[in-house]
Amino acid sequence: MLILLVTIGAPFTTTLVHADPNDSIPELSTATAVPRCRCLPDQACWPSSDVWSALKDSVDGNLIATFPAARECHDPYYDKVQCDKIQEGYNDDKWRRSTPGALLQTNWETFHGKGCLGTNQTTPCYQGAVPIYTVKATSIAHVQETVRFAFDHNIRLAIKNTGHDFLGRSTAPSSISLWVTAMNDIQVVDKFIPVGAPAQEFQVDVPAVVLGPGAVWGDVYKAVDAHGRIVIGGDHDSVGAVGGFCLGGGHGPLSPRHGLCADNVLQYTVVTADGEVMIANNYLNQELFWALRGGAPGFAAVVEAVYRTHPALENINYFQATLFSNDTESLDKVMRDFYSRHDAWSNDGWSGYAAAKRDVVVIQYFLPDASVEEATSAMQPFLDYARSFPAVAVLDNTVDHYPTFYAMFQARGDAMFGEKAAGINALLGSRLIPRTMFQSDRGVDLLSSTLVKFQEDLIKIWPGAGFLVQFVAGGQVSQGSAEDTSVLPAWRDALLLFIGAIEWDDSTPYETQLEYQRKLTKSVGRLRKITPGGGTYGNEADPNEPNWKRSFFGAANYPRLRSIQKKYDANGLFVCRRCVGSEDWNDDLLCRRGRH
Q: Which GO-annotated molecular functions does the record name (predicted)?
């Protein structure tokens, strides 16, 4: 039996309490369905158990009654055997991606601060933002059935692959979840011709990889490497390769070499809000294709993606150095020098990641198609400058040489900075920094001093806070065109993406969590102030980003994206947090604002 307590129109106020999961769902009629709102389990519009059973039959039995991932570690559902398994996997991202009710960051499993977190037997357990049901789709037909069901019954739809999701877009309260992780086919082809393309335009072979929506980057990299190819993907093996990653632009270690993921899409196959299958490429449904290359989720359910592949690298060098100092003034000067070198490093083909805290900085940068001597020589002036400060220690300084990108990824993937912190409560805030800022002393000084204050702000929120430096722009990323993709234009001018992160434990009161969020938004404002008219990467951003339409999509792109979204999803079936069209909905995305 499911008991639902809801306050319609008030954000983050839904609490679900599960009783016996084997009981049927009651058909309550105490509330009247409001047309502008999604149907909820305590309303007469909610499907009966017979209707849910019919859906289960239509998806070949792949309908799952979904509960919070840690449920069996909490009274009154405590089960020692199951709880031991939960404790073993709780902070493992692979366990989380294989569990229908779990997400990478646990705060997105909660609703209005209520959820079922951790493994403390005595803490309350609420359904939170975990969907009521999940369809584990194994075919396009299953996707169609799920989309039609959600549309016909006016139920909130959430789409999930791995749960690597920093904005909470892959879950929703009182929803049905479309879980595509099992649709993970990977096919590497030597010549791909988009559907509808004139044959004469494809006289030259275009190698590609064809992916199901459940594919993850570790498997994709392995597959293309076996064919002597590379593809533009993420920096961690369990990040989904098809959904929000590429729809939002998609950056990775090789982006400066070959552009963003969205720049390399050749074709999408999607299921639209009416349950129909549609192909989008440069020859069919071009406006939808444009929107799907950078416009984020919110237009349709992707069931297949085709990405261009590129010839394998000749080799790749992996540079690592750890800088440590208790003298923050000295370390700040070293970091200022570090930032000042990025314009030249970009010209030389470098990319990579760094993580900075007040007393330690870890740098992991990559240089393709060069010798160890060349890579070492390029980094030596910076290391010499760092060592000139007696209070700064340079540790773990190495340059490793690998024959292929995949060989490096296998050896170093777990050490690279990416979405790996699983089973914690966390939020991000970020900003793209334009290349021009790195081309003058004044710009570097302004950036460096701002980052010092930004970091101090974060530490006041969470003492362990720091920020990431993602050297994933410049090079070929700057060559993309707004005519070809809907990628945020600020990407084309950027060189680095800075990301601040905060965390909190499960015992933190909800009002305190909200205060942390407000402080995070305010602190990121320091970076917004020095980059007027810029923006950020919407997949790794503050979910409370002010002026999010401009910051995530760009002032020039948004009106066109909005028009396309209205055309293909007028009823907002695919609405998600800070996605195109979400301004029509209240904060919990369950009711439309005003008159609709």
A: FAD binding; oxidoreductase activity
